[in-house]
Amino acid sequence: MADHVEITLRIDRRWKDAIEKHLRDEALEEHLEDVLDELCNQLPEREYERISAEIYAEDAARRTEEEAARTYAAYHVVENGQEWYFKTSPGEELLDAAEKLRGYVTAEKGTAPDLFIKLFANGQPITVQEYDALTALRMENTGKVRGVFDVNFDKREFSAVHIMDGWQTWAMRDVSVAAYHATRSQFASSDDQWRKLLDHLSGKEITSAGHLSARNFSFGDEIIESDGKLNFYVRTEFDVDAVFGTFVCTDKNDDWLNIYANYDIAEDRPCDTLELCLCKADGTEESWSYRLNAAEQDVLLRKMEAFCQEQTGMSLREFAQQFCEEQIQAPEMQM
């Protein structure tokens, strides 16, 4: 890229003061910049356009390079009935976010801001769609997104996206305690801090609506086809009441919940909803859908792939293709 040339002029202060007085509220430096602009405008048109194009291209390349090197974290925060979506740069990882949380929840009254989001002075507001896009990018493990967090003070839950398992959710108090143990020694290395944090969080994960993880997706029965989709029966071996608002994890009734995940053969991807059917003891049923976010869809696809390989020895795409070929050949054989 072209270098900028610095031009230095020496002038007696008395001349400078007199000129600026004559210019009326305009600094001499600003006036000289206008003079230089005018001189540039007087260059031959072709030369002016060539140099302008070079400068524009160099600036664009610099911005592209800076953006490629920039990293982010994305946050969804709920506090006192309000919610915010924002991103930070260079972006926090799990340990950083946990430290911020601990500092906020343990601060003496009057020594911390009245809202968690005020700890992020440089946070940039984003839309829900941008938050989902950053979540998907986090799951791709490109290094561009260092962390995606959902911090819900009203539910006292802290959730973070893991690149392999999707969402992980803990009670806020457990995250705060883990952050304390991880950082209390000023001599601990970064690796030691991470190890201590994860050790103290291990086994303390909770199930939370909107934060289904790989451990929530296990399948039973065989894969069946229905209306152009491969249907997977999801085992209810987790706290479905916490996620779907049902009341079946109890001995007070004989209700049960059926959960189905579908793979769209034509679209070659999982459907973005789970289909739920609540079967009640009195014989009635209630059906509805649960929309999956980016991280949930990603881990669902991985678990579908693994289950399909286990059951059929084929990938989802191969199994779907074979099924389509069999469907085409069936009418021909009947003729």
Verbal overview:
With 335 residues, the protein is of the alpha+beta class. It folds into 3 domains: 13-69; 72-201, no CATH class; 214-334, no CATH class. It contains 10 helices and 11 strands. It has helices spanning 13-23, 28-41, 45-69, 94-106, 128-139, 172-183, 190-201, 240-244, 294-312, 316-334, and strands at residues 72-79, 82-88, 124-125, 145-152, 157-162, 166-171, 219-226, 229-234, 256-264, 269-279, 285-291. A 6-stranded mixed sheet has the order 3-2-1-4-5-6. Helix 4 crosses helix 6. The model has no long low-confidence stretch (mean pLDDT 90).
Low-confidence stretches: none
What characterizes the major β-sheet? 6 strands, mixed
Helix proportion of residues, in percent?
Answer: 40-55%
- The chain-level structural class is alpha+beta
Number of strands: 11
Order of helices and strands: HHHEEHEHEEEHHEEHEEEHH
Rg to the nearest angstrom?
A: 29 Å
Report strand %.
Answer: 15-25%
User: Rough shape?
Assistant: extended
Mean pLDDT reading: 90
How many individual domains?
3
Q: Helix segment count?
A: 10
C-alpha termini separation = 71 Å
Ordered list of secondary-structure elements with their pairings:
Blueprint (H helix, E strand, L loop, with lengths): L12 H11 L4 H14 L3 H25 L2 E8 L2 E7 L5 H13 L17 E2 L2 H12 L5 E8 L4 E6 L3 E6 H12 L6 H12 L17 E8 L2 E6 L5 H5 L11 E9 L4 E11 L5 E7 L2 H19 L3 H19 L1
Parallel strand pairs: 1-4
Antiparallel strand pairs: 1-2, 2-3, 4-5, 5-6, 7-8, 8-9, 9-10, 10-11
Helix pairs in contact: 4-6, 6-7
